[in-house]
Specification:
The complex is a heterodimer. Chain A is 0% helix and 50% strand. Chain A contains no helices and eleven strands. In chain A, the strands form two sheets. In chain A, strands 2, 4, 5, 6, 9, 10 and 11 form a seven-stranded mixed beta sheet that branches. Chain A has a four-stranded antiparallel beta sheet with strand order 1-3-8-7, with no helix packed on it. In chain A, strand 5 and strand 6 form a beta hairpin. The radius of gyration of chain A is 13 Å and the shape is globular. Chain B has one domain: Immunoglobulins (Immunoglobulin-like, Sandwich), CATH 2.60.40.10. Chain B is built from no helices and eleven strands. Classes of the chains: A mainly beta, B mainly beta. Chains A and B meet through strand 4, strand 5, strand 9 and strand 10 of A and strand 5, strand 9 and strand 10 of B.
Chain lengths: 115, 114
């Protein structure tokens, strides 16, 4: 089965530093997403991305966050100035089409630790 | 506010028994529901889904039941195996395509005793 690939699997950074989390969605998918999961809590939607622009974002996704699809295969999440509360598992996901009951495929996540 | 939530944080079952995981949702306009399984160190994996125009759907060893009257969703796992040990999330998808976003419940840990 095709996979969404995320790198790195773990990222440790100092508070105030910039981090970029990388994702390679499934090749024929058109819709891309970032979710996060704080330890012990539920998975939360951050942002959706289609046709090279943000479709929807949550209130978590403030001005410190940005997403980019720099080429035909990568999809990145940047946090400009990390805070302690940004520590979480970040999941990338992708979706092929537009029907409501298509599967959303998740990557294995990047565990971000802000010290 | 709208929410999708799970009743119990943990569930322990004997290997071979059937497991039932329950979930409540609050938005009566919700149209599509999904169960995800998350194993340690991995992202959520799709298990089974159901549209609001159905009340039951079966997969391999899994069945999802939807009761719209009481806004309740359940996942039944037949003959639970050690490999079923994971955290299970119910989720709601309110729109298709570019606006598609999942609202997840809090998660319940299923532990299978040998």
């Amino acid at each position: 089965e095709p996979e969404v690939t995320q790198t790195p699997s773990h990222q440790v950074t100092q508070m105030g530093q910039e981090v970029i989390l990388r994702c390679v969605p499934i090749s024929n998918h058109l819709y891309f997403y970032w979710y996060r999961q704080i330890l012990g809590q539920k998975v939360e939607f951050l942002v959706s991305f289609y046709n090279n622009e943000i479709s929807e974002k949550s209130e978590i996704f403030d001005d410190q966050f940005s997403v980019e699809r720099p080429d035909g295969s990568n999809f990145t999440l940047k946090i400009r100035s990390t805070k302690l509360e940004d520590s979480a598992m970040y999941f990338c996901a992708s979706l092929r089409g537009t029907t409501i009951n298509e599967k959303l495929f998740f990557g294995s996540g990047t565990q971000l630790s802000v010290l | 506010g709208e929410s999708v939530g799970l009743h119990l944080p943990t569930l322990s079952v004997q290997e071979g028994d059937n497991s039932i995981i329950n979930c409540a949702y609050s938005n009566s306009a919700s149209d599509y529901f999904i169960w995800y399984k998350q194993e340690s160190g991995k992202g959520p994996q799709f298990i089974i889904d159901i549209r609001s125009n159905m009340d039951k759907r079966q997969g391999q060893r899994v069945t999802v039941l939807l009761n719209k009257t009481v806004k309740h969703l359940s996942l039944q796992i037949a003959a639970t195996q050690p490999g079923d040990s994971a955290v299970y999330f119910c989720a709601e998808n309110r729109a298709a395509g570019a606006n598609s976003k999942l609202t997840f419940g809090k998660g319940i840990t299923l532990s299978v005793r040998p």
